[in-house]
Amino acid sequence: MLDTKTKQKINAMKQGGAILSFVMKKLIDAAKPGISEINLDSLAEKIIKEKGGESGFKKVDGYKFTICVSLNDVCAHGIPTSNKLKEGDVLGIDCGVYFKGFHTDMSETIRVTGSKPKTQKDDKDKFIEIGKKVLIEALKQAKEGKHIGDISNTIQSLVEVQNGYSVVRSLVGHGVGKKLHEKPEVPGYLKGSIKDTPRLYEGMTIAIEVIYNMGKPELVLDKDGWSLKTKDGSTSGLFERSVAITKQGPLILTP
């Protein structure tokens, strides 16, 4: 049975989501050439604690960090290391906050730049811009009466059909709440009929994820046992927001 939340519970998640959104903005501001991945992780944990929250990811069995770092060909679950960011890197940051008994989940992908802004955009810049736009369109589908398949179809159509990238099949969005990962799964691709996928109801809280590659969708597990990389070495990106289904439409919990 799918877990639906009361307005009070959703409000608690909104508070936790505000903390997470604040943390993400600070991490993006700090993600400049020369800073290490592990320093970003320490910064995230420091801010979350200062705001009265806990690291959601540290509640995952075996995971000891506050963020996951996806650099260039790393798609997801990358462990923060002493590696320092370089100008031009494609950096994905995934983070979760646990607050008042509830999880929120969020990720963002950026291009690492120095003090001088880029004057010309390249294929990787376009790739990131497309991911942002896809997430915005996918979030619009998070309405009562629609189906998970409406979200999946939107992501797949925009990523693959319109732009020629690939949606990762082995990783999906998910319900979020008392647990970091709850039912239902929210794939970025449609399998079968939209109407055969779970219906969206008021009070549902889900994490919508756009997980996509410039090349093919297949991933391989790195020797660290966590990091998932693109099999063909192509650049990967991820964008994620936690959202509640309400009578008034999508309520973004991690704006």
Could you describe the 3D structure shown?
It is a single chain. This protein is an alpha+beta fold and 255 residues long. The protein has one domain (7-114, 121-252): Creatine Amidinohydrolase. Helices cover 27% and strands 27% of the residues. The chain has four helices and 13 strands. The chain has helices spanning 7-30, 37-50, 123-139, 148-161, and strands spanning 54-55, 67-71, 74-76, 90-99, 102-111, 166-167, 173-175, 182-186, 205-213, 219-221, 228-230, 236-246, 249-252. Strand 10 (219-221) and strand 11 (228-230) form a beta hairpin. Helix 3 (123-139) runs antiparallel to helix 4 (148-161). The radius of gyration is 17 Å and the shape is globular. The mean pLDDT is 97.
Explain the layout of strands and helices.
Layout: H1 7-30, H2 37-50, E1 54-55, E2 67-71, E3 74-76, E4 90-99, E5 102-111, H3 123-139, H4 148-161, E6 166-167, E7 173-175, E8 182-186, E9 205-213, E10 219-221, E11 228-230, E12 236-246, E13 249-252
Helix pairs in contact: 1-2, 3-4
Name a few traits of the molecule.
single chain; 255 residues; alpha+beta; Creatine Amidinohydrolase; six-stranded antiparallel β-sheet; four-stranded antiparallel β-sheet; 4 helices; 27% helix; globular
What's the gist of this structure?
With 255 residues, the chain is of the alpha+beta class. The protein is built from four helices and 13 strands. It has a single domain (7-114, 121-252), classed as Creatinase/methionine aminopeptidase superfamily (Creatine Amidinohydrolase, Alpha-Beta Complex).
